[in-house]
Design goal:
The protein is mainly alpha-helical. The protein has three helices and no strands.
Length: 75
């Protein structure tokens, strides 16, 4: 399967940019990008926080494995 960006050509990108400008207007695009960037930042922060909480929880709940001695060799 080919990556999605490999399928897009320069013409496709220009066409999508033109449609976005027509829909939102040139004045709203910076605000839209700012909110998108802050949303991505919050998402990454949530992922980090969740990962750290999971690591803390797994460290406290890790089963205590008793030390095992070597098993006798069967001859």
């Amino acid at each position: 399967m080919t990556p999605m960006l490999a399928v897009l050509s320069a013409t496709h990108v220009i066409l999508v940019a033109a449609v976005v400008i027509l829909l939102f207007g040139a004045q709203k695009i910076p605000e839209l990008m700012r909110s998108l960037g802050s949303g991505i930042g919050e998402f990454k922060k949530g992922l980090r926080d969740g990962e750290q909480a999971l690591l803390r929880e797994s460290a406290t709940l890790a089963p205590q494995v008793p030390e095992t001695t070597t098993s006798p060799k069967s001859e």
